Amino acid sequence: MKIRCDLHVNGGSRKLLLVPGPNETGEHLALKLAAYLLFWDWEPVVEASAKHPALAAQEFIPDLMALDQGGEIRLWVECGQVSLHKLGKLLRRLPQARIVALKADERQARRLRKDLGDCLERSKRVEIWAWPEGSFKSWIACVAEKTEVYGESRGLMLNAVVNERPIVAELKKV
């Protein structure tokens, strides 16, 4: 399923097309859309390819990234499942970047935080954000192949009308 988005957030407007990659589910695309909205003011890049200049030295592709004025990665976001191996390499290769993992619920987020703490040095550099219990189901129910969003996004807070349904969510840092 492709998601065509018409977005009106924080006083700005953008169009976004989310196309699933191999093995990407609708849930994963919904997480990517949420990440895009949550980092709206960072002017995020979604669907970057390995040919993007900022990714030249990387073996991985982010779900979402933002660049500084020099074209260097300043934000790397992973949505849903992400391996500890990948996070470890990102911590070493992107020492100045903010690294965020977005999870659909707090249980998954707590599990990742525990696994990170057990395995990786500097694991606290990885921010883990989670939808409060039950709220991701409400979010995913609003997202469709054609999605219109009107609202505001600040930090962990999303206050919007999505396809004519109001949604207010304050994600949690784990």
User: Helix and strand succession?
Assistant: EEHEEEHEHEHEEEE
Coarse shape = globular
Rg to the nearest angstrom?
A: 15 Å
Q: What oligomeric state do these chains adopt?
A: single chain
- Global structural class: alpha/beta
Distance between the termini: 30 Å
Mean pLDDT: 95
What low-confidence regions span 5 or more consecutive residues with pLDDT below 50?
Answer: none
Quick recap of the structure?
With 174 residues, the protein is an alpha/beta fold.
Descriptive report:
This protein is an alpha/beta fold and 174 residues long. Helices cover 26% and strands 35% of the residues. It has four helices and eleven strands. The strands form two sheets. It has a six-stranded mixed beta sheet with strand order 3-4-5-6-7-11. The protein has a five-stranded mixed beta sheet with strand order 2-1-8-9-10, covered by helices on one side. Strand 6, helix 3 and strand 7 form a beta-alpha-beta unit. It is globular, with a radius of gyration of 15 Å. The protein starts with a strand and ends with a strand.
